[in-house]
């Protein structure tokens, strides 16, 4: 049996509402990947559509966790970052990458900071500059259209998107990283939505699209990025991994829509895990 891969996931924990670590852990585990975590904050719920939620910042714990891990000589096949709530956390995670990245470590940065044309209210207007610096340490980045516009300084446009606009975003993002880009929220037609996978070294762009499902579904970005990483760590090429992640995410949304579940609660990805595992060739 091949050696088990190990990932360090640096995300917040929402105790209710499926997103961040509560989706990254089960999805990566289903992919056969040992998943260690560094929680950046604990919230009673995520912030999308809920009010009155609790929030405990765990920034002070990050250096101590990293220092202890260094004494154990741990090796990670991947370092995976999601929502980071401050410039201080950006700097601490950059140090973690420096401390634990080796020649075969895949660094995936999901620059969670904006959506639907707007920066999240918790961030100052200069936060994208700090996130762009962290993206420079990544092998793969997974921004949505809004985040891509903020990272590149280009105009945000709602879909349907033109090929020229998407490729301008991709080229701009390619200048931030030495690795690859998966741009999510790509809408080339009114009824098709998905992602574009870009390799700046070769210039190759692959569009991976599926029928669009109307509505806003919380946590789907985290589900997509986690499913993508699970596929990459199982040896899939970038475009193949993106197809697996798109299919898994879309099926989770459809399942939730059909059930009529409150969209604030997250999508039903759990029922799709057997199909995901099968797509990875693990069963």
TrEMBL record:
It is an enzyme of class 2 (transferase). One of its GO terms (biological process) is pyridoxal 5'-phosphate salvage. One of its GO terms (molecular function) is pyridoxal kinase activity. Keywords: ATP-binding, Kinase, Nucleotide-binding, Transferase. GO terms for cellular component: cytosol. Coiled coil: none annotated. SUPFAM superfamilies: Ribokinase-like. It comes from the Bacteria. The keyword Protease does not apply. InterPro entries: PM/HMP-P_kinase-1, PyrdxlKinase, Ribokinase-like. Its EC number is 2.7.1.35. This is pyridoxal kinase. It comes from Acetanaerobacterium elongatum.
